[in-house]
Amino acid sequence: MCLVSIDTSSSLNTPVVLYASPAAASGPEHVEVPVDYDAVILASFGGPEGQDDVIPFLRNVTRGRGIPDERLEEVAHHYRAFGGVSPINEQNRALKAALETELTERRIDLPVYWGNRNWAPYLPDAFRAAASAGHKTLLVLATSAYSSYSSDRQYREDIANAIESAQLQTVVTADKVRLFFDHPGFVEPFREGVETALRTLIAEGHDPSAVSVLFTTHSIPTADAQLSGPKGRAWPEGGAYQAQHMAVAEYVMSTVAQTVPVARDVAWELVYQSRSGPASQPWLEPDINDVIAGLPSRGSTAVVVVPLGFISDHMEVLWDLDTEAQETADNAGIRMLRTPTPGVHPAFVAGLVDLIIERLEGTPAAERPRVTELGPWYDVARAGDCKNARRDYAPAAGGVAP
Fold first, then answer.
1. Which class is 184-338 in CATH?
2. pTM of the predicted protein model
């Protein structure tokens, strides 16, 4: 296994980023010189595509934790309710096709390969396919927008593992597209969704002061949240993960208020969902179902649920929101509207291609679009960013070691 050591006294030409292109190898925060990438790797989580896949898939997701199949079956029923098929793979096929179309329309000759962390097609196979076609300078686009171990550093570990598994250490380089939580293309579908939902509820006769907006994202262990984001910046208790979500939610509500002025009277908050793990382990709260159940006591008659942490309508959206949260709202006697995820929204797809072009052209950081003061996020993750709280560092590409 190839590791890159860091000498803090070394020159800027000394590589400190594993498997990086020469432009990123010295670890700049933003790569502001053009890089001639010759392929894009779309990296995602993956999901089962039949009943027989469900338990093997969940074993992959929980590998190393010693969770017995009996406990996995408690989660498996979410997938079994949909025929054992997670929608995420089909959604990634659609996203890959949309990216290819957008790239072609802009006359950018970059093939797109797709690989997953937990189910076929696997990421090492995507790297093998790219290398076999003669593509050596690769740009990885992960379907995750925010800072946390599982949504950032683990993808960078996946990249390193894929290159090593495919024995391409001396063949390819791989950089990673920056986290895009506050890129306008990612945020626009949420802004549009909130505006549409509020107009609908107002038209139905709901008083704006009786409407609540809940921005929801995947809960993570508090210890992991506190390690999200680079050191040396002031973060709330939930780390960069919480700060990024809050900043985007604030932007969405402030911009919606410009077109729907009564939105200023609408209460909103950030909530969490899809918690797993032992009850003794602290996770980010409050849970969305607890909040929805308490809304009538606040005088709410309707709630808008915004899946701010999710790229597409995969299982945590279809089951945890459209099934469980909807049932909670029904039991509480309040109207619930769930806004769309970005999916293949034209603004989102165009934004992802804009992010690719940033790296092709070496766009200066000052010229890069973002809607919060936190961005634009780093092209090269900073040392120690998004450490796994339960184990030591593993080799990771796309960032300064460790």
1. alpha beta
2. 0.95
